[in-house]
Design brief:
Blueprint lengths: L5 H13 L8 E12 L2 E12 L3 E6 L5 H9 L6 E6 L2 E2 L5 H9 L1 E5 L10 H6 L18 H13 L15 H13 L5 E5 L7 H18 L2 E5 L3 H7 L2 E6 L2 E7 L5 H6 L3
Parallel strand pairs: 3-8, 3-9, 6-7, 7-8
Antiparallel strand pairs: 1-2, 1-4, 4-5, 9-10
Helix pairs in contact: 5-6, 6-7
The structure holds adenosine-5'-triphosphate and magnesium ion (MG).
Amino acid sequence: MTVLTAQNAIMAFDQDSESPAPERGEVLLDVRAISKSFGDRVVLQDMSMRVHAGEVVAFLGANGSGKSTTLRAVNGLIEADSGDVTIAGVKLNEASAQRRAEARRSAATVFQKIHLVQRRSVLQNVCAGGFSRLPAWRSVPALFGQELKEEAMACLERVGLADRAHDRAGSLSGGQQQRVAIARALCQRPRMILADEPVSALDPKAADDVMQLLHDLASKEGLGVAAVLHQPHLARAYADRVIGLRDGHLVFDAPTAEIDDAQLASLYV
Ligand SMILES: Nc1ncnc2c1ncn2[C@@H]1O[C@H](COP(=O)(O)OP(=O)(O)OP(=O)(O)O)[C@@H](O)[C@H]1O
Ligand SMILES: [Mg+2]
């Protein structure tokens, strides 16, 4: 098994930036040696990773290994104690509050728990993804602009649910609701989607549909996708690269085809 220390992971990244692999797109997310403790418990140590435009990166690891903490340090739900996070070229801890907020908007988060407003229409839920781009006075449902509605419709088309735009969100299946949540994320105009267990509550067919959608958004539209998964077979089927975490440490980061079953199994012992 390839064991990556933070040091050689960063060296590998440095070499990568000197001679970028031609098939990979721009670096959209560059996490360098972040650490995080809660009290005296170290939950992330020297975690480094990158997400490029056009790729799906799967994050695997046992419960408590630090996957969500990594994503939260990127989307701003927590601050890392040390290390750097750069989103779309903006180094967060050196940027102004406004640039930091803009950079973080370019990374939209999708969660396992979908959080749609069930009694509102699918379209209204998707429009909410655009609110962060609007002045506060327009972020009121009655004032949804025509322009925003059209953009939200286009986002629904991208996830294959335009025909359900006027249905109540609560009337859709779990898998469809997760696709609506992805449409809402797209309405934020992100360059990257951070998905924390997007398919853990879905049946196998719906999980495949959502993973196929995320894969298509990356491969056809050039978004970067980082998805926490608890299903190694989905990582194999849909991810370009797999990152393994154990006890807050990066244990491997490699193209999916190079990951063997023993490496995957080692994450869960
Ligand atoms: N706000 C917090 N306060 C204290 N401890 C926390 C907090 N958030 C996370 N932790 C701890 O950090 C560790 C990593 O948690 P994290 O949520 O990142 O794990 P995970 O890999 O996403 O696990 P799971 O697969 O169960 O979602 C765990 O031990 C957890 O208890
Ligand atoms: Mg988690």
